[in-house]
Structures are given as structure tokens and as C-alpha cells.
Amino acid sequence: DTGVSQDPRHKITKRGQNVTFRCDPISEHNRLYWYRQTLGQGPEFLTYFQNEAQLEKSRLLSDRFSAERPKGSFSTLEIQRTEQGDSAMYLCASSLGQGAPDNQPQHFGDGTRLSIL
Amino acid sequence: AQSVAQPEDQVNVAEGNPLTVKCTYSVSGNPYLFWYVQYPNRGLQFLLKYITGDNLVKGSYGFEAEFNKSQTSFHLKKPSALVSDSALYFCAVRDYFTGGYNKLIFGAGTRLAVHP
Question: Are A74 and B75 in contact (CB under 8 A)?
């Protein structure tokens, strides 16, 4: 079990640029989640995939944000035209579950810290 | 709506003493509750969960949590604190009642400081 891997760990960019983050979940996990964590706060849900299907999106996920999981394995989160308020830690989590509600824990990666200059 | 509250921003405890980190929840239906720990510049590590059954749940690193339905609480406990337990602790509830697909709703976190 190699855990959830996120790349890059840190990203610094200028306002208005596009950025893309990658998440590799635990290999057998069918469910994948993206969260955003700002300083001093708990993580907030952004979006969720079951296999390759994106099943839920938060209102936090504006039209500048897009996420994909094309083959049901790794996932990417893209932010277009970044803004100062996008500065945060972006966390990916995965789990192996069936149905709802799911009693399996989500396993988190170490996150990508985004800083907008 | 589902929610959790962690009433203490910080908990200070001496090494070797018991520790408690508090969490209260508000849910419609039966709660699925989780505790996670976060070290600096790291992701969240799963400690334990309550789904159903015994109200005292045992987890990783000697932590346990007590589910209390009448008080809608799920406090994290450890009989003897270690300096290495110093970290940020998050309580979370699974949001499924509103038709969501199992996303977690987190509290704001409690910073635990264990002093030698």
C-alpha cells in the first residue's frame, strides 16, 4: 500500500495563470475526493468521483475549476485564471466503498499547497 | 444539514496525563463519525471511526473515542499523552443524508499541545 500521492507538493504562480494538480489514489480504491483547506480551517469538500464518473460537485467549485478522472485511476484538478483567494492546500483522498452511506475511511495524500502571487 | 463542532481551538496537556479533544455533531439520522490527525505540511491521517455498535471505539496510536448519542458528542481520548501526539485534530461526519455521496464534513480543528 503506497498511499495517496499528490504532485506537485508546492505550486507558486502568478494571478491569472492556470495550474493543474495530479492525484494518484491507492490502487484498488474506486472512490476519489478533492478537498480544499485554508489556514486554520478544516478541509472543505470540492468534488467526488466513483471510478471515472464525477458524481458530486460543491458550490465551491466555480466554473474556473475542473476535475477529471479519465480512466478511473489518477485524477487531475485544474484551476483556470487563478485568483488570490485560490491560495490553499488542495487535498486528495481515496476510499474503497460500495453504495451509500459508505462506512470506509478516506485516506488522504499530503496535498498540494498553492500560493498565488 | 450535517455539521460538527470542535469547541476548543487548543488543548494543552502535560506528557503522561490523559487527554480529551471534544467534538459535537448535528446530523439527521444515524451519524458516521471520524477522527483524523494532521501534522505540519502533511495530509490527514485516519485515527478511528464510529459507524454503529459499541460506544467506545479504539483506534490507532492508543487513541479511543466515546460516542454519546444523548449528548451528540464524539470526544477523542487517550489515557497517557505523548509529546509526539502534538498535532492538529479534526472531527468529521459523513454527509449522505442530503443525497450526497459520502463526502466528509470537518470541524475547524483542535490543536493539541503536549508539554514535556
Answer: no
**B70-90: average pLDDT:** 97
Contact check, Cβ <8 Å, B105/A48: no
Q: Quick check: A25 contacting B, CB < 8 Å? A: no
| A51-102 pLDDT tens trace | 999 988 888 888 999 999 998 899 999 999 999 999 999 999 999 877 666 7
Tell me the HSE value of A42 on the side-chain side, using a 13 A CA sphere: 21
> Are the beta carbons of B55 and B48 closer than 8 angstroms?
no
What gap in Å lies between CA B33 and CA B16, rounded to an integer? 27
Of the candidates B46, B102, B105, which has its C-beta nearest A100's C-beta? B102
Tell me the nearest-neighbour CA distance from A112 into chain B, angstroms: 9
Check: CB of residue B57 under 8 Å from CB of residue B78.
no
